[in-house]
Amino acid sequence: MAFGVFPIVGTNGLMSVDLGLRGAVVALCLLIAALALRDRRDSTAALLGAALAIGAAASMICSTPTFPRPFAWWGLLLLALSSANCVVFWLWARAAFDDDFVPRFWHGVLWAAVVVAQWLDASGITRSAALELAIERTLSFTSLGLTLLAVAQALVTWPADLMQGRRGLRLVVLIGASAQIVLNSYLSFLQQPSNPTFSMTSVANVLALFVLVGLSAWNLLEAGTRGGSILLPATNVRFGAPAKASDDQSKPATIEPALLRRLEQLMTVERIYRRERLTIGLLSAELGVPDYRLRQLINEGLGYRNFNAFLNHYRIGEAKAALVDPEQVEVPVLTIAMDTGFQSIGPFNRAFKAATNLTPTEFRRLAMAGNAAPVNDRLKIGQSS
Question: How far is it, in rounded angstroms, from Cα 18 to Cα 61?
């Protein structure tokens, strides 16, 4: 008998610990999903978080060594939720850490493709050991790749994040979940026993997930006293539009009016947003305050959750004024974009379209044609959608 591996017997203490932890994880995951669906049905990140929790619960059930195999039809439903959870995790990271994320049709296609591949592998319908091994390897690498993309999402968007709670918790939650998925991928890649058994590795894996899910549930249950939860972000906010920093309206203000006025002067009078590659560090140095104070000032004082959205609010405002100015009708759109602080035309076009529901060229054409009413109507549509 190999060290750390025990036969499946009903009286084995290791089996009892494993099954007990799995049951606790399933219960906590369902609690998290219920809280998300009850409290934040209007948030894409919360809905994806609920789906992620349900998938984790399904994974705990499907991966139990005593789970009946081959899978029955209801087992295949659980397997679908479990196997495609890597896709849901990646989408959740996108939605939680990128306020501009919008689900696309191809995201659903990717989820379905992973499900179908897992079904083919589990059902044995291919009747080819080589093909089944290729599918298993592909699924492992897909899970690992999506996990790395989720980690990259957290790291890339971290500098511009203005929400202190989300900055502090995003890496803890994300790295913990990433480590769990990487471990699962590693085990499935190197270990494929024909007869699943309870082992120290299995218990350690479930225990790690239990700790992660338990901390997540605690975060949600404590959200009411801490002004919200990182796991269930507020309703989606459009690019360039300010959002309330906290759902807790009773929280006392900690913003200095004089500092806020100085920041407003820098943005509206000195137009510091035009400066090339302006960062929070550079702006905080200009104000003479630490980075965290500036983040708090913009987030709680002005209501922005993202530094780029804060800058683009002023940049797009100046660009719109230039595009409707008859004296600048011959100035190229690229020049206007660069003058207002954008580094290239692509980000400018995307930010402008998100803020106004029009491309810069369309905006200028309607304005030059004297159709002020259609322009205003389109602006209202873009701001309300």
Answer: 11
Which tokens belong to 180?
């769990």
- Half-sphere exposure at residue 358, Cβ-oriented, CA atoms within 13 angstroms: 21
User: DSSP letter string over 204-250?
Assistant: HHHHHHHHHHHHHHHHHHTGGGTT--SSS--S---TT----S-S-TT
- Look up residue 299 and give its DSSP letter: I
Reading the block at residue 258, the tokens are 């004089």
Contact 326, 259 (CB under 8 A): no
CB-CB contact of 231 with 32 (8 Å)? yes
Residue 306 φ then ψ, to 5°: -140, 135
3-state secondary structure of 270: coil
Is the distance from CB of 85 to CB of 59 less than 8 angstroms? Answer: yes
CA distance 165 to 170: 8
Separation between Cα atoms, residue 61 and residue 111, nearest integer Å: 20
37 vs 47: CA distance, rounded Å: 7
Burial classification of residue 265, based on how many CB atoms lie within 10 Å of its CB (0-12 exposed, 13-18 middle, 19 or more buried): exposed
Dig out the tokens for 270 from the structure.
Answer: 């000195």
Q: What is the residue-level pLDDT of the chain in tens, covering all 385 positions?
A: 444 544 444 446 778 888 899 999 999 999 989 988 887 777 888 899 899 999 999 989 888 877 877 777 788 888 888 888 989 999 998 888 888 888 999 999 999 999 988 888 777 676 677 887 888 888 888 888 888 888 888 888 888 888 877 776 677 766 776 676 666 666 655 555 445 566 777 787 788 888 888 877 887 776 554 455 555 554 444 444 444 444 444 444 567 888 999 999 999 999 999 998 899 999 999 998 999 899 989 988 888 989 999 999 999 999 999 999 888 888 999 999 999 999 889 999 999 998 888 999 999 988 888 654 445 555 444 444 4
- Which residues, in sequence order, are bridge partners of residue 220? none
CA-to-CA distance for 322 and 314, rounded, in angstroms? 13
Task: State how far the Cα of 271 lies from the Cα of 283, in Å rounded to an integer.
Answer: 12
Q: 53 and 30 in contact (C-beta within 8 Å)?
A: yes
DSSP letter at 161? B
DSSP state at residue 344: S
On the 0-12 / 13-18 / 19+ scale of CB atoms within 10 A, 188 is middle
